[in-house]
Amino acid sequence: MSRRRRTNDAEELVEMLSWVFSRVPPWVCIPVALIGLFLIPAWMTPQLKTPGVQPVMEMFGWFFGALWAMVWLAGGFGGWRLRRQRAAFLRQNIDIAWLNSLSWQEFERMVAEVYRQKGFQVEERGGGGSDGGIDLILTGNGQRTLVQCKRWRRFKVGVKPVRELNGVRDGEGAQRGILITSGIFTNEALRWAEGKPLELIDGAQCAGMLRQFQQAVGGGTTEMPRHARHDIATPSRPVCPVCGSAMVLKRAKRGANAGKEFWGCSQWPSTKCPGIINL
Q: What pTM was computed for the model?
């Protein structure tokens, strides 16, 4: 699932233009495109009938006029689509089921937007294979953080991906590592990450972060600058109401709730603690 890096100036320009056109009414783009299409050739074509010069200038005029028109038409369509996507996102009831309905590309894109709103500079790196599958690189607060996204519906994330992420983090000299999934982590993975510069975010916590992001975007105005900083925190795991231990996200294997997630005591089954909290 590797992807090219979004680090060059052209991609930054496209991202900026998308944001700009999302604030331009679509009906404005068509007349502006048509005006430029005909006005630019008229302005560039010299009035002097110089042999050999006028046809060349006229050709360049039509070229730049057509380029202007295409930018405005494509930008208008892109801005209209971006507004529709934003409005649809603001209407979503974000839960684990919604997370699991996303493609892996959409899941990574949403995670990247959350960290941008938190004030980080985000490089969408993409990955897979021997590099540990690093998808995002966060820069901010004097730290460099590697993020790996796993949109897994049917499998628990075990200790192996956690070890690999920590090895890549150490090899690249990053201060922190974040492993975020739409699913759940095994108890072994959670225990192994304790005391290390790693953060494991499961599906319930990820959904909570996205709900905060949804409120940040739509709470005041949908015209808020994309990179404005907002306090989007990682929701903490609840504490067992029976024994006070940390709880972990689990999935029911049988019964009427088979396949559904719930918070269960991390001490089960060693102490047979029955503590459960529904999502």
A: 0.64
* Cα distance between residue 204 and residue 260, in whole Å: 12
Tell me how many helices (H) and strands (E) the chain has: 8, 8
Both tokens assigned to 241: 């109401």
Taking only the tens place, the pLDDT of each residue in 95-134 is 888 888 888 888 888 898 889 888 888 888 765 444 457 8
In DSSP terms, 179 is beta-bridged to: 148, 200
Alpha-carbon distance of 115 to 72, in angstroms, equals 30
* Nearest partner of 222 among 86, 116, 63, 76, judged by Cα: 86
Per-residue model confidence as pLDDT tens digits over 77-88: 777 776 776 677
Contact present, 182 and 107 (Cβ < 8 Å): yes
Contact between 130 and 2 under an 8 Å Cβ cutoff? The reply is no
E-strand ranges in the chain read: 121-124, 136-140, 143-150, 176-181, 198-201, 247-251, 261-265, 276-278
Give the residue from 232, 231, 230, 237 showing the smallest Cα distance to 199: 237
Residues 4-16 as b/e (b if ≥16 CB within 10 A, e otherwise) read eebeeeeeeeeee
- Residue 65 has what pLDDT? 86
Alpha-carbon 207 to chain mean position: 13
DSSP 23: T
Report d(CA 112, CA 206) in Å as an integer: 12
Q: What is the pLDDT of residue 192?
A: 92
Lookup result for tokens 């839960």:
95
Verify cis geometry, omega within 30 degrees of 0, for the bond prior to 269: yes
